[in-house]
Amino acid sequence: MTDLDRITAELAEIQDALLGLDAGRFAERYELELRRDRLRAEADRYRRAADERRPTPALVAELRSIAARVAAAERRVSGFTMMSGPGGTGGAPAAVSGEMTRAVIDAKANAASDLGPLLARKAIIERVLVERGIDPASGRARSAAGPANLGRRPEPTTE
């Protein structure tokens, strides 16, 4: 079992324990949540190390794919929220009667979308690219001059 497998298994155990806790057991919940946060940070370090070994073109391609998926998810969320507004269909009667507030609509739309994980992954890839001196927006190297390239890490080579 790899370290990442061990971390994933422990996170699953913690999740099960959290779900099984009684509402009044605050101290135990707090300790489990602390452990979960530490394990998540450790897993992020493993993922980041794997990204740092990947070649730049692969990271740029993944970043572009994520940008397209984020745009599509945002269009889905916008379409869902527009259904409840003036001139929309589907959710308009509920919105007019006051049963469905804008906050409820937004919460349901965000829960139905996969924006959170996508945006988190996008931020990780952008950070690796910036550290290599690559502009995430264009996928090209930044100019060698300036503070943006201080501490720049070299790109890994594949052989």
Explain this structure to me?
This protein has about 160 residues and is mostly helical. The protein has two domains: about 1-55; about 55-150. It has six helices and no strands. The protein has helices spanning about 5-20, 25-55, 55-80, 90-95, 100-110, 115-130. It starts with a helix and ends in a 28-residue tail after the last helix. The mean pLDDT is about 80.
Task: Give keywords.
67% helix; mainly alpha; single chain; 2 domains; 159 residues; 0% strand
The rounded Rg comes to 21 Å
Mean pLDDT: 79
Order of helices and strands: HHHHHH
- Number of E-state strands: 0
Major sheet summary line: none
The end-to-end distance, rounded to whole angstroms, is 28 Å
**Could you say which structural class the secondary elements and strand pairing correspond to?**
mainly alpha
Overall shape: it is: flat
As a percent range, the share of strand residues is under 5%
**Total domain modules:** 2
The helicity comes to 55-70%
Flag low-confidence runs: none
Give a brief rundown of this model.
The protein is mainly alpha-helical. It is built from 6 helices and no strands.
